[in-house]
Specification:
A hairpin with an 8-residue loop joins strand 7 and strand 8. The strands form 6 sheets. Strands 10, 11, 14, 15, 16, 17, 19, 22 and 24 form a 9-stranded antiparallel sheet that branches. The chain has a 5-stranded parallel sheet with strand order 3-2-1-4-5, with helices on both faces. Strands 6-9-7-8 form a 4-stranded antiparallel sheet, with helices on both faces. By secondary structure, it is α+β, with helices and mostly antiparallel strands. The protein has 12 helices and 24 strands. Helix 7 runs antiparallel to helix 8.
């Protein structure tokens, strides 16, 4: 088989690593890819939003399956472009990717189908949003830009003043661009956050092992929201009872709701959950693998990823027994000092050879490229995801932090408390 992966981050590197393990695959392409993905795939200089060029390439190279890693192309309708040309592609169509593409849509869907989530109101008029905040809101409160905002379009406001500033940022100053044309104001939920990824074929859902992300830039959950500074899997807070509740009241009902709306979902649904005192509730949906969640979930998956993805495309997922190793994984993101605000790129990195032939240790590239001399240099805010497995979370955490020492670059920055919650579990 020939496989094309679309994307250039740590998630796509983890997908490429998984695909490379499949005995059925003999050629992998990645558009546009990065320096790490180049180990498994031929990187092609086509952007993730160049749908026609991607489809032309897949047709010309007789690609058997294209895997869309990123949210922007999915929400933009890349899958529809491929399907119209008879090309096999893994991911939701545009009318299903709206589950991630519009927070207002997903909140309305949950309300209609009685899927547990926080109370909310949608606004398209900043004045009406301000009036609601001044007259009805309970603080703290959450403001969300409706559209895609690189995982950063969510503001938690403790006071009315902060919330008024937030409305201005999202709806008037358009800090997140058109994502802020509509805004969701949502009640603030407290509890443990947990992420559960799932494979879906339009009617059947198979959930993967749980994970927990760390979004803030600095230790102790301080600093700005980022795309994710590290993660661990499984979450000790995601118990058998929580899983049973979610399967019955959240996971299958979401798949059924999308089908009922004439938007059958095929691909990955990422459930962001809050384990509240009243039970699990949905924080958000994503329509693709999480990043860095993919970097801890995929190394623990026993199945051939190609077989599972083909079953999703073909509608035969009910025949798949999805299995995970009885172990744990921790991923620590090595970032550029100053991320997510301002940071230098193009800094040489060393030490990749330390990961060669080391079982259970992975160095997933997120923001890297080759310079003109073939040296690997930094090319983003989140640079690498250092993942390690272990028999339990404590061992995996120790292994991952040990492995962060194997890579050096001048402005290397990381959090030192990824998975600290494990010690409290």
């Amino acid at each position: 088989m020939k496989v094309l992966i679309v994307g250039s981050g740590g998630r796509e590197h983890a997908i490429a690593w998984s695909v490379a393990k499949s005995p059925r695959v003999d050629k992998i392409y990645c558009a546009p890819g990065n320096a790490g993905i180049a180990e498994y795939a031929e990187c092609v200089n086509i952007g993730a939003m160049e749908f026609e060029k991607l489809a032309d390439f897949a047709a010309e190279k007789e690609v058997d399956l294209t895997i869309i890693g990123m949210d922007d192309p999915l929400v933009g309708g890349v899958v529809d472009v491929f399907e119209e040309r008879g090309l096999k592609v893994f991911g939701p169509r545009k009318n299903a990717a709206i589950l991630e593409g519009s927070k207002a849509f997903s909140k309305d869907l949950m309300k209609k189908y009685h899927i547990p989530t926080a109370g909310y109101e949608n606004f398209t008029d900043p004045e009406k949003a301000l009036e609601y905040l001044r007259t009805q809101a309970k603080f703290p409160i959450v403001l969300k830009a409706d559209g895609l905002a690189l995982g950063k379009g969510v503001l938690i406001c403790n006071t009315l003043e902060e919330a008024e500033d937030g409305v201005r940022e999202i709806m008037e100053d358009k800090k997140f661009g058109n994502a802020g044309n509509t805004m969701v104001i949502e009640e603030f939920m407290t509890g443990r956050e947990v992420s559960v990824l799932s494979f879906v074929d339009g009617k059947t859902i198979r959930t993967m092992t749980s994970a927990q992300d760390h979004k803030r830039a600095m230790d102790g959950d301080q600093g700005l929201n980022t795309g994710g500074m590290g993660t661990f899997s499984p979450s000790p807070f995601y118990t058998k009872e929580v899983d049973e509740f979610c399967q019955k009241y959240i996971y299958q009902p979401t798949v059924d709701a999308m089908a009922s709306e004439g938007r059958p979902f095929k691909g990955i649904i990422f459930f962001g959950l809050m384990l509240t005192a009243e039970g699990p509730k949905v924080l958000e949906y994503n329509a693709r693998f999480g990043d860095p969640e993919a970097q801890v979930v995929l190394p623990r998956m026993k199945n051939d990823i190609i077989e599972v993805m083909e079953a999703c495309v073909n509608g035969t997922l009910d025949q798949v027994d999805l299995q995970f190793e009885d172990n744990a994984a921790v991923c620590v993101v090595l970032a550029s000092e100053g991320y997510p605000v301002k940071y230098e790129k193009g800094i040489p990195m060393y030490g990749f050879e330390n990961f060669k032939d080391k079982d259970g240790y992975y160095c997933f590239h997120a923001g890297t490229k080759f310079d003109e001399n073939g040296q690997i240099v930094t090319n983003g805010g989140r640079v690498l995801g250092i993942t390690a497995t272990g028999s339990d979370l404590k061992e995996a955490r120790k292994n991952a932090y040990g492995a962060t020492e194997w890579i050096t670059f001048a402005n290397k920055y990381m959090r030192h408390d990824i998975g600290k919650a494990i010690d409290e579990a």
